[in-house]
Amino acid sequence: MPASPLANPTATREMLERFGLATKHRLGQNFLVDDHVIARILDLARLDEDSHVVEVGPGIGTLTLGMLPHAGSVVSIEADHTLEPVLADLAHEFPSFAYVMGDALKVSWESVCAAGVGEGDAKIRVEPNILVANLPYNVAATIILKYLAEHPSLAAAVVMVQAEVADRICAAPGSKAYGAYTAKLNLYGRVTGRFEVPPTCFMPAPHVNSAVVRIERASVADPETGAALGPERLAATAAVTDAAFAQRRKTIRNSMAARGFEKAALDEAFVAADVSPTARAETLACEDFVRLASALAAAEAIPADLPVRFSAGGAGK
Ligand SMILES: C[S@@+](CC[C@H](N)C(=O)[O-])C[C@H]1O[C@@H](n2cnc3c(N)ncnc32)[C@H](O)[C@@H]1O
Fold it and tell me: How many alpha carbons lie under 13 Å from residue 38 in its C-beta half-sphere?
């Protein structure tokens, strides 16, 4: 039994022809045509009837069809409106499948939950608890961080990304791939699995290597109370992290001062958090930023409206 009936070049070509579709580079449409890769994604996702999947970018439903027999429900978000007839057919065939047309960075979470499962009046609202996707690479990094930061119901993410983005996701402090993106992602989860996927597994083949990573939600403890940090404190810590990385050649003290932090408050916070003011941000771990943000929050020294970036900067296909 194949993991997905569409995960081969012939079935994919026939499906595209049947619906009069052509793949769109602009939308990162590199469809999976390797059944072995679908099987490995399913292994990493460990879906069961309690799994409620949100998938970004179902395309013609290749991965979706692999997941549906194993999951309680799948709701997919697709930006390409020409794919709607394909997804409508799929929803007709599988009551546990629903879809939302739109940009995954813009659709409301409520519309995703409300898409629900079941037929007609029997439809029930379902909040997804896992993100599983072969992501469009130009927005992959942003989607992962934004979804984990904004949707606490997501307990894990199993995502195909450009290998370079996977390197950033997995990077250790001080390494070349480590940056603000990794430190912020570590506020929400930890990588527990990874495997590599060559370009030949896609149609058309992308120009870059890919990798699938599993990110498990992890809570970060408040250094004062030991309790898990809530969404507001996590967002404040992410903003402090961005400020520390804002000017990579500068020390964190100067980088943060340039972002509007009071120097006197910063100096007290560096002592309280046991973080060196002359350190460069790329040498600090997520836990260092948590202690620094905690000390700054206690002193009410975090400027209001400090921005948080979800993107990974230069990484994207
Ligand atoms: C790499 S393809 C994956 C297709 C399919 N899941 C597979 O594995 O073969 C990425 C999909 O994401 C869709 N997409 C691109 N940008 C999107 C966005 N911002 N929001 C939702 N879907 C998007 C594309 O149209 C495409 O269907």
Answer: 24
The ipTM of this complex is 0.99
What pLDDT digit, counting tens, does each position of 51-76 carry?
999 999 999 999 999 999 999 999 99
Which tens digit of pLDDT belongs to each residue from 237-277? 999 999 999 998 899 999 999 999 999 999 999 999 999 99
**Could you tell me the residue ranges of all domains in the chain?**
9-217, 231-299
**Is 61's C-beta closer than 6 angstroms to any atom of ligand 1?**
no
The CA distance from 136 to 32, in Å, is: 12
In CATH terms, 231-299 corresponds, of 1.10.8.100, 1.10.10.10, 3.40.350.10, 3.30.750.200, to 1.10.8.100
Chain segment 165-202, per-residue pLDDT in tens: 999 999 999 999 999 999 999 999 999 999 999 999 99
Instruction: Say yes or no: CB of residue 57 within 6 Å of ligand 1.
Output: yes
Centre of ligand 1 to C-alpha 11, Å, is: 18
Residue 309 has pLDDT above 90, yes or no: no
User: Residue whose CA is closest, atom 4 of ligand 1?
Assistant: 59
Q: Determine the topology of domain 9-217 in CATH.
A: Rossmann fold (3.40.50)
Q: Which of 101, 80, 93 is nearest to 16 (CA)?
A: 80
Of ligand 1's listed atoms, the one at least distance from the Cα of 24 is 25
- Which ranges of 177-312 would DSSP assign to H, the alpha helix? 180-185, 231-245, 252-258, 263-273, 286-298
